[in-house]
Amino acid sequence: MRIDKFLSEAAVCTRSEASKAARAGGITVDGVTVKRADLHIDPETSVVTYLGERVVYKKFTYIMLNKPEGYISATDDPRERTVLELLDERSRRLGLFPAGRLDKNTLGLLILTNDGALCHRLLSPKNHVEKTYFFRSERDVTEEDRQRLESGVILDGELTKPARVALDDSRSGRITVTEGKFHQIKRMLEAVCNKIVFLERIEFAGIPLDPSLGRGEWRELTDGEISRLRSQG
Ligand code: URA
What we know:
Layout: H1 3-9, H2 15-23, E1 27-29, E2 32-33, E3 48-50, E4 53-55, E5 62-67, H3 89-92, E6 97-98, E7 107-113, H4 116-123, E8 131-137, H5 143-151, E9 154-155, E10 158-159, E11 164-169, E12 172-177, H6 184-191, E13 196-204, E14 207-208, E15 218-220, H7 223-232
Parallel strand pairs: 7-13
Antiparallel strand pairs: 1-2, 1-3, 3-4, 5-7, 5-15, 6-7, 8-12, 8-13, 9-10, 11-12, 13-14
Helix pairs in contact: 1-2
The chain binds uracil.
């Protein structure tokens, strides 16, 4: 891979900045200053520095975001604020997109990645990837409602897949589903004549939301979390 491509994919600089830096002696490969940005390197084994900083090649990036209210799960939008705007400038250049959607007023765990194939597998209904939400409802969820939610309600003319509902009290609890239908949890509660007043995703594909992340904060997934994600998709 060419050095300028390597550096721009790592979101360190643009390709033209890489050429300038190379001419100015700002790039080294395996300890040797290189003057040309079109030189080919092995991204897995070459030791590259840019303006004195080591640049480690990562094919894909995986981010955990604690989504706040008021942001849409999209990469750009002419009117609304998008979750991408919560990232720093460098991460915004990595071509990340949300793995699935949370509504504008839903909070919590959103994974952002540029690994399209994994994202596709995680969202495929075939793979039954679990998503768990903490919810508060307007009215009491009775035992009968709980059982109906678990065994399936009709959405879009189809029975929803089996879910798990654990109530904390009569109007709040956790619901785990394996599908990702549009407004799924809100519509499931509506199907039992209730209404969601608060919704937060607390787990996705076996990865819990990191409690140390405040709303709007994010971090890269650990290697363990990435393996977990791969094992689910
Ligand atoms: N279900 C919903 O209704 N909204 C979300 O944002 C996620 C799941």
